[in-house]
Input
Amino acid sequence: MHHMNKSAKQRTLSIVKPDGVEKGVIGEVIRRFEKEGIRVVAMKMLHLGKKQAEGFYAVHRERPFFSSLTDFMSSGPIVVMVLEGDDVIARNRKIMGATDPAKADKGTIRADFAGSIEQNIVHGSDAPETAATEIHYFFSDLNIVS
Ligand code: CMP
Output
C-alpha cells in the first residue's frame, strides 16, 4: 500500500525582498508563517550582487522585466529562509498572495504590503523541483536544521 503524499512534509525557499527589508516587515512576514505552524529551518541576510540576482532568476532571463527585476533584487539586503511543513509550498504561496498585489487576496502579505507586481515583498518557490534548486542556491544541507 503506497503512502498518501497529499500532506507530506516539504521545504520551500522564502525571500523577504529589498522592499520588505526596507519597509521593516521581516518580523511580520515570519510571524505569518509561524502563526500557521510553518517552521523556519534555515535563515540568513545577504545583499545579492547583480550577477547573483541574475543567477537566481535565470528562468526569467528572456522576460522584459528581467533587467529591472535583477536591479531591484540587488538594490539592498534580503532575508532568505528555508521553510518546512506539510504542503508548505502551496501554503506559503497562499500566505503571500498573487504575484500582482492588485490581484492578491485580502489579508495576504502582498495585498497588505506590496507596492507593485515587481516590488512584491516576498518570493516563494512554486514547485518541489524549483524549491530544491532555489534552496541550494543559498544553503548547503549542512546549514539546514532537522
Ligand atoms: P517572484 O515570485 O519572486 O518571481 C518572479 C518575480 O518577477 C516576481 O516575483 C516579481 O517580483 C517579478 N515579476 C513578475 N511579473 C512581473 C511583471 N509583469 N513585471 C515586473 N516584474 C514582474
